[in-house]
């Protein structure tokens, strides 16, 4: 395809949107190729511009995970990056307590979404959900109990659609997408009245990306293979620079949109700390009042971990409990975090310095996947060897903007 041919594609307005990114950005509409039907159908509600940005990116993520791992997949998207992503790996009794689903019968798809939402539940507040399978009643009932801005999936069972359509007083956006739809070869974006064109990123992320292991330790168990693929596909749809930590078939921390890669590692690492500290016995035994709702419990647990409240904040915080809980001390946190192990770390490009590896070692990272290509590659690999980590070089950069 020549450069002249790149810009010959014509578009035809398909539907109006309420507004663009912001209410002042009107008019706003969806365009598609003339004579072709849009590959999705809005079954309920009126998705907005940002909803579509989240939905179409999140759908690609879960579809790729399903193809790569043959497992039901879910993503929780916020502002064009995943807050969480996961495949259906069985929940332990501890997982069920942490994710507040002890008494629920969960389908494989519901399990995937519970994991995706449970990665970073504060960030997932008001998420756009993507699911790789037909949505069943079990999954719909989980979604009914969370604050969410919409959902995209290939289909919906009638009972599930009824439950979801009742959310937001009947205005909850529900999108049904064609499972077989493939994007055109070229994609376009207008910025400041100028059109940019590029080849759609159709790179396949499967087990083959782990073939080039460059560390002395080369042992990657099957569970880590799943974690590395889940995390890498999630990173592919995260605003760059980006890194992700993964464990148990789910992303447990994402660092998105940072100018420095080590800052991505630190940002995502703080989310990992919170994810793991939510498993501390003190968190699980907090004496909540019966009337405290699920999202309020989630918020309170994270606030409890932070332990930096003013007196006024503390007074409001204590209203959640039958009796004020004792603090989780810095020493208790540090001791608990030493138990985190077997974590994977994936990066959307190379690590330029060993500092990211040093940071990752503090979060139980055992497996690393990166593009490779740094002029200091030997130093980065040596750092991984020093911690007994496994590092693979994919040779694939995954910037996303």
Could you give the order of the helices and strands? HEEEHEEHHEHEHEEEHEEHHHHHEHEHE
- Helicity level, as a percent range? 25-40%
The assigned CATH architecture of the largest domain is 3-Layer(aba) Sandwich
Give the CA-based shape. Answer: globular
By CATH reckoning, the class of the largest domain would read: Alpha Beta
Would you tell me which CATH topology of the largest domain applies? Answer: Cytidine Deaminase, domain 2
Q: Give the CATH H-level superfamily of the largest domain.
A: AICAR transformylase, duplication domain
**Count of helical regions:** 14
Biggest pleated sheet: 6 strands, mixed
Query: How widely separated are the two ends?
Result: 23 Å
Q: Report the strand count.
A: 15
Decide which structural class fits the backbone. Answer: alpha/beta
Can you tell me the number of structural domains?
Answer: 3
User: What's the rounded overall pLDDT mean?
Assistant: 94
Strands in their spatial order, largest beta sheet: 3-8-7-6-4-5
| Backbone CA Rg | 22 Å
- Strand proportion: 15-25%
Low-confidence stretches: none
